[in-house]
Structure formats: structure tokens, C-alpha cells
Amino acid sequence: MTAQTSTLLAEAETEANQPVQRRSGRWRYIGGKVLGSFGALMFVIVFNFFLFRVIPADPVRTLARNRLVSDKQVEELTRTLGLDQSLPRQFLTYLQNTFSGEFGLSFKYRQPVGEIILDRLWPTLLLVGTSTILATVIGIYLGMVSAWNRGKLVDHMSTGFSLTLYSMPEWWLGLVFLAVFAVGAGPIPKLFPTGGLHSTDVDPTSFAGGLDTAWHLTLPVITLTLAYLAEYSLIMRSSLLDEMGEDYLTTARAKGLRDVYVRRRHATRNALLPTTTLVVLNLGFIVSGAITIETVFSIPGLGLLTTEALEVPDYPVLQGTFLFFSIAVILANLVSNLLYGLLDPRVRL
Amino acid sequence: MSETTSDPTAPVASPAPVSDFVKSEKPREPLLEIEGLEVSYRTASGEIPAVRGVDLTVHAGESVGLAGESGCGKSTLASTILRLQPSNATVRGGIRVCGKDVRTIGWSDLRALRWGQAAMVFQGALHSLNPVQRIGDQIAEPIRIHDSTPAKGIPARVRELLNQVGLPADRAQAFPHQLSGGQRQRVMIAMALACRPELIVADEPTTALDVMVQAQVLSLLTGLVEELGLGLLMITHDLSVLGSTCSRIAVMYAGRVVEEGPADEVFEHPQHPYSAALSAAFPRIGDPAARYAPAGLPGDPPNPQELPSGCTFHPRCPVALARCSEYDPPIRMAEPNRPVACVLVGEDGRDRSAAQSS
Amino acid sequence: MSDLTLTPRRLTWQRRRKSAGRTWSQFRRHRSGMIGLAILVFFGLVALLAPALAPRSMIEVTEATGGVLQPPSWEFPLGTDENGRSVLALLIWGARVSLLVGLLATAISMFLGTLIGLASGHYRNFFGAALFRITEWFLVVPFLPLAIVLASLLGRSLLNVAFVIGVTSWPATALLIRAQTLSIEGRPYLERARALGAGDWRQMSRHVLPNVMPMVFANTTLTVAIAILSETTLSFLGLGDPLRVSWGSMLDDAFQTGAITTGAWWYFLPPGICVILVVMSFTLIGQALEEVYNPRLRDRT
Fold it and tell me: Under CATH, what is the fold of the domain B28-108+198-283?
């Protein structure tokens, strides 16, 4: 999601948020947002169903596309997947299953999809969590410096740097890092592992194991961080530039406040508000960015799971991960909206 | 409002006792002294003159009005008083506030001057106040920096200030968007008074307010000037506002003061054609003939990058002479303390016949 | 004296031409936009002239003449791939696919986005509100997982990739156009058109659309940038057309055949650099156009 889209969505939200005066308005706001998220969730669940059952003209054929199946096997497959029932009946079964946490069996692993997802959740969270924190902190700082020094060399360099990062597929940067730092190029020795999360000879739960994991995650985290750093820096920069043009800063300066203080306490603080909400909003989409990074670095998380599922194709797994990624975005959306409501007094009271 | 005599060096006589809020012990020294001020902006398309030589003085207990259309340079002038002009502005000339040369004093002296001795009241639109900070905190901010009031005493002082401008004390917890336009303007005034300044510069304090609220804010300002013995420089495009609140009015056009004098004199008997037009734009109640007077001036304010030759007003002047397009008249005294810049005004009073023969 | 009578239609076109000229002269002043345009023209020419620059045979696996993963040499300026084909030739032909898919996907996305955006902005009733809700919901669905799912269901072909990208990126355009429509519809001349009896379709096509187009145009270039990035990613994941070479598929092959571990930089660096250049060029053009159409933004940079 581009900075532009994020801004548009935030604007559309603000348009819908009129300042509510009464105390009870706060609960109405929260309630409204939760309801909206629930609606989005329902949509995604229904969409998920139609995606897999309705799009392929003959689901069974599609499922069996790359494998030779006899007619008997086709029949059995049809029965197992419940495709011999009527569409509304299938939908009902699907809903029942979804809400009871049953997502079917993976074709490849013959295990319940829900279990597999839970197994592979942790590496993805680690990767995405660390990267987001770093990207946010560094990106916001870079954006601030750019805005304060607008027009100077620092600003141009930073903006150019961000633009280049923004135009590059983040996984390609990962490939380059692999080639340079994991394989070694020229004078640079092999500094990092070429993939995986753990070395085979180290106990992952020990302290040494923790360090080992961190060592494995260094390059992936750096790659993912750089990918989103650029966007956050650009957002913060433009947000701060908007604030810096506001009249109340002249008032503050006229009151005898130091320039640095004016910038820090007034302008930056106010500019952080839209930036933070956009960052949280973006969180949902970073999770999807993990797909490619995990593939490049062979990190056994949900992203790699999705790419591996493509080969078979392991549709139950694909359906499960799709649902998971969508829920991540919806949640991030909700938290971002609530955060905005909490922080901006124009909406809060 | 105290009636000023025509001699500005005479001691100011205010009817109300000057309260002990006034720090200055030498009421004779002007609070604001602007001499030959010139301001121009450096832009990609060259140097654009905004102020081209202005002299202005404000004394304690005196309220001076500065009137002019948008683009005449009055806001630029206001910004230089506390050295708040944008970084691409070049300033020449003298600006003295409470005896200190604003252009050359050190940074810490300037910060002490700002708000502590001279404060500004901006247009109280939603954007002059920090939208996410409570107004009580915004009023308290300069007190924390300048005043010696202990932290415990600040809330009481904020309440005192709010009362002084006619706002209930509980409004201190409100955010700017919860107040009406008139209330926000009062907050700006309360904020300006926070550190007990001697001079207040009000830049368009009543624009965008409706007439009733405008009258309230104006009477508040004049009351405060009287009560506290402040000096007030009121800048606006609305001449009628100045007519009722100020003791002296200066009219600005294209970066220069074209006329100055006691308020009622300038309003009733304007000497410069521009002031005449401004004044005529406001019909007098009870004068039927005024309703038929042509309102407004033809044309637009001059582009600062392409000022007309000679007298800058001549393209729009209803009584322009042939030589007005070549000759830029200097400021002359129509009467004692009545500077006017027009060829039709001689050294002693209007000398039309002599001018017309040239 | 001209013997061309000035009809309203002719007048409109005259005005349009003049305003286009004005836009161009304003655009010319943006150095970054011009650089972007130059890069784009370069790659466009390369893509168009591909058969002339590198004969088709050079990318046929069966006709490969070079060694496996050879470093650059006189014969192969950018070395060879795992099949012995010239990487430079692959790069040239890859430009075709990347640009083509990018443009096609954008066309689909813009078409859908404009239609839905206009409608949701114009119709203030339940229909318009419903469209807006649906747009918001689609924004919530993360692009890559959806694209992966769709691509795996529909099969791998050039058209499908373009379709998948187009169908997943219309919401952003729709939001933008809806916002523009709402602002334009508030203007008096729309009210007048309505009072004169203009129907929905006429209002939208004759009045709103021409005014929305400039912003749409600027937005299109940015959409192409994203579309090209998406195509590269999808091809890298193996979802592209197996019969065609694209920069993404080159990178996929490089990854799969261990070019990373053997340090065959000539294989994986050039495609990435090309993608960066093309995407950056579209982004720069888009940013410059945005500033031309919205002067307010000029103060930002």
C-alpha cells in the first residue's frame, strides 16, 4: 500500500469522523469502528469461500490439475471436500468450520491447517515485529530530519534514498544482501547464514540458541526494515512539512519559545499523530511483505508456508493463510482507528 | 478613550489611574518606534518590496490603527516588530520596542522581549491556536517561560486572565475547536496579556468575526488599553473598526504610509484620496447623501513586483493629475502632525488651486 | 478570416489542446519529471525494438550457445544464464513483458477504479454508499495473498497476471476518484447542469469525468509503478507466464539455480536495477504531474 493510498484511506476516515461532542460519543465511535471491522471480517470470510469454490469452473479438476487421478479418486475427492452438496449447504458447512477453527487438512502435510499455521506463526511475528519497530523509529527520525532541513543536502539525499528503496522490490534487496554478506563478495567475508532460522547444532531455546536465531534473522530484518523505512520517512516528512506551515507555530515563536522547542513540542508532536496511525495501518500489509522475504531467506514462517503451498497447490493451506493475512490487516485497521480516536482530541471528546 | 493632544511628546493623560501592571517608568519614551522601515522578500523572481519606508510611533496608553488593503505590507510590518518575519525577508531601517533595537539585540534578549514586553494578537482562527492543546495550557506556556510566577500560582493566573477577557474560568480545559470565533479571539487576547506586556500588536483581530462579536472584542481591547495603560497597534483593513477604537490612524498603501493623523480627523476629513475612498466606503448613519456616494475603488491593489511609476496610487486615484504618473510625492505635513503623501496637499493645508495650475 | 466555424465542440477541443500544452510546459520545468520521462522513453524504445536489438533466437533455450552462468565477456556483455542464453538478450525481451503487463494491469485497474469511483461518488443513495463500503472492504484484503490465490486458481499466463494485478489494485484509484467526484459535484456548474435536466450518465461523462481526468492521469503513472513491482514479485514467486521472460522470472531463475550462492552477479543485479529504474521513472513522472495539477504540493519539496 502506497503512502498515497494510506493517506487517502485516512482522509476518507476523517471525513466520516465528525467531532462528537458528548461523552457517550466516545463509545459510539469505538462501537462504530468495531462494527465496521466485523463487517470487513464477514466480507473476507465470504469472499474466501467464493474464491475457492466458485472461481474454478470445476473445483475438483483444478484441485487435481497437476496429478493424475482416476475417476474413482475424483469421486472420493468430491465427497471429502463436500462438493457434491448444494452450494448453500457447502457455504453453511464452511461457515461452521471456520468458526470452530477447522480449516481442513493440508494436502501436503496431512495435518490440520489450523495447527500448521500456529506452528509457523512465531517466526513471522518475530520478523515482522522487529522490522516494524525499527522501520518506524528510524523512518520517523529520518523524516523529521528531512523536514527540518528542507531543501538542504541532507533532505535531498534522504528523499533520494527513500525513493530508490521505494522503487525496489524488497526481496531483491534481500537477494543482494545474501550475495554480499552471506556468500561473500570480493573483500567481504561470509558474515551471515544463507537461510533458515536455526543452526542445526544449537538448541533454539537456550541463550546461545536465541543469539543464533538473532544472527539468522539479521539480514531478513534489515531487508524488511529498509523496505518500509522509506515509506515511513516520506510520510513523516510530508506530515511534518504540513504542520510546519501552520499559523499556531508563529504564535508559539512570538511567545518567545525557542525554535527547537517549538519544533519538538508543537510541530513534531502534532505531525506524529497522522504518521502513527498510518504506521499502524500499514502493519497489516507488512505481514504480507514477509511472504517474499521469508522465501528468499528460507525463514520457516507463514510466508514461506504460503509460497510452498503454491507448488502443490495446497489449497486448504492457501485458504488458511489468506484468511490469516486478511485478519491481520483488519485488526491493524481497527487498532489504528482506535488509536487515532484516542490521540486526537478533536475526535476524542 | 483618552483624547490625545496634537503633540505626541506631551505626557499621556489617561483618565483611569495607570495600574501597577505598567512597568515603564518613563511614559514619555515611545513603546514602539519604527523609522524608515523597508522590507523586501527575496524570491526566485527577484526582490519584491513589501514595505517601502514607514515611520510609526506608539506610546503607552495610546492606540494606533494601521489600515490598508491586503497586500499593502501591513502584516509584513507587524511581523518585523518581534523579528518574526520569514527567513527570505530583508529588513532595513529602525525598529525599537520599549527602547530596544529589535534588529540587533541578542537572541535571549529578543526572547525576553517577546511576550514579556510586547505581545501579538493574531487572527484567532482555528489555526493560530494549537488544535490539540487545551487553551489553558497554551495561555500558561509563556507564563512558565517568562514570568517569575511560581508553578503553583499559574492556574490562578490563567483563571484571572480568562476573567479579564470575559471568559468563564472553566473554559481553560477546552480545546480550540470547542470555542466560538469570538471566544477564540478572547483567548488570543488573554494569552497576549499573560506576561503583562507594555505593547500589544493586534494583526486583524476582528476579521472573520460577525459584527456583534466584533464590537465586543473591540470594546474589550479599548477597555484593557485604558485600564492597563498599554500601547496598542491595531492592524486591519477595516477603517470603520479603527475609527471607533484608536486615537491615531495611519493609512498604508503599497508599502508606504500615505496619511496619518488623529482618528476622527482621518475618518471625517481625509486628505489623501485613498483615505477618502476608504472612509467613504462606510456610510454614515443619519447622512442620506452618503448612501449615494460611490463605494469602493476601481481596479486592484498594485502588484508589488510591478509598482506604478510616480505616485503608486495614481492609476486608481479619482483626482489624479498628469504629473502624478511621474512624481512620487514625499510625505508633507498638511497640518502639524498630519503627514500626507499627495501632491494636492501642500505644506499648509489643501492647496488645490496652486496644484491644478501646474 | 478562417473558414472553420467555431462550434462548441471545436472550442472544447481547442481549449483542451491549449491546456495540454500548458501542462507540458509546466511539466518540463520539473527536472525530476523530465529525468523520469527520459528513462521511460529509453526503456520503451528497448521494449519496442527488442526483435531488432536481440533476435528472438537468443532467448530460445534450445538455441543457446553460451556456457552455463558465464561471467560477462565480449560475446555476452552481461554473461549467460543457466541455459547458456545471453543475459542481455533476456533483459531486453524482459522489458517487453514487464512494461506490457504493467500497462495492461493499470488499464484494467483504472477502468474498474474510475467506474466504481465515479458511481460511488455520484450516487448519494444506498447504491453509492454500498459501492463505497465494498471499496473499503477490498482495500482491507492484502494484495499479495490475494494475488497468489487468484494466480494459482486461474493458471499462469500473461493475461492472468495482468488481470490479477488489475483486479486487486482498483480500490486505491476508486477512492481517489470518489473524493474528486464528491468535490467536483459540489461545484455550482454541476447544480446548473442538473437543473437543466442532465441525467446521471450525462453529468458524469460530460462534466465530472473531464475534470477528474487530470488527477486520474497523475495517479495512473503511480499505479503503473506499483503494477510493475507487483508483476515482478508474482513472477519471482513462479506465478508468471512460464513461456515468457520477464525481469521477475529472471530473478526467480537466478534464485532457483543458485546464482546467488555462486556469485553470478551479472544474472541477478541487472534485472533488479532495471526494475528500480523503470519504477522510479514512473514515480518521478507521477510526482511531477501531481505537482503540476495541484500547485499546493509545490511548496512541499
Answer: Rossmann fold (3.40.50)
